[in-house]
Fold this sequence. Notes:
Layout: H1 3-18, H2 26-30, H3 38-43, E1 50-54, H4 60-67, E2 71-76, H5 79-92, E3 96-100, E4 113-119, H6 129-138, E5 140-151, H7 153-156, E6 170-174, E7 186-190, H8 195-204, E8 208-215, E9 227-228, E10 234-235, E11 237-238, E12 241-242, E13 246-252
Parallel strand pairs: 1-2, 1-4, 2-3, 4-5
Antiparallel strand pairs: 5-13, 6-7, 8-13, 9-10, 11-12
Amino acid sequence: MDYLTTNKTAWDARTRVHLTSDFYDVAGFLRGNSSLREIELSELDVAGKSLLHLQCHFGLDTLSWARMGAKVLGVDLSEVAIDEAQKLAQQTQLSAEFICSDVYSVASKVEPQDIVFTSYGAIVWLPDLTLWAQTVVACLKPGGQFYMAEFHPAQQLFDGYSYFNRGEPDIEQEGTYTENAGDDQQTLMCWSHSLSEVIDALLQAGLVLEFFHEFDFSPYNCFEGLEAQADGRYVLTHQGQNVPLVYSISARKPA
């Protein structure tokens, strides 16, 4: 089974559902709301910088960075998502470029950027993090910054997935994660990636680690068993202790 074709078909279908979901709140975004969350907003400065957003879906985060002064370029596997991102850029009159491409092919299609950004549920769709990290480096200017905020792999254990990459993908039939998912299901192929695999791939590709942070909350209500907090965060507890749900990494390409 070809994972690119399989996942592209699934994300084309998911995009059509996500556009009308409360989860993504496109109407709020068009009124001026940001789709970005507290973790990345507190850790990443984009003003006046060029930013490449890998696996950008239909562009809400990408365009939110544009509103904060970045010159943005979004990349996604789904043609439906990229078409919708371009429409949103036109509606908001934000300066942004979007291209349809798989992650591993993008380095030959873009100029090096000041920042490469990726976030929340992105790398599970990638089988090879060594090639991913090499792609990140190829897309950065000398001295450029890579930043990611991603769901913590420890959480996957509670959903029955491996913490470690087993080489072979998990292949499942499932619906999407938004509240309007309905009964439609798609075939999806994904891979687990431990923290050590992520960090080692980035270091071996030549990036210099600036920080690694872990968080005991999720900014999204997207896992079973999460408890809403008064501050808009969601937590998962195990035997009375909060489970790590998100981590963030900043690393820099040597000048």
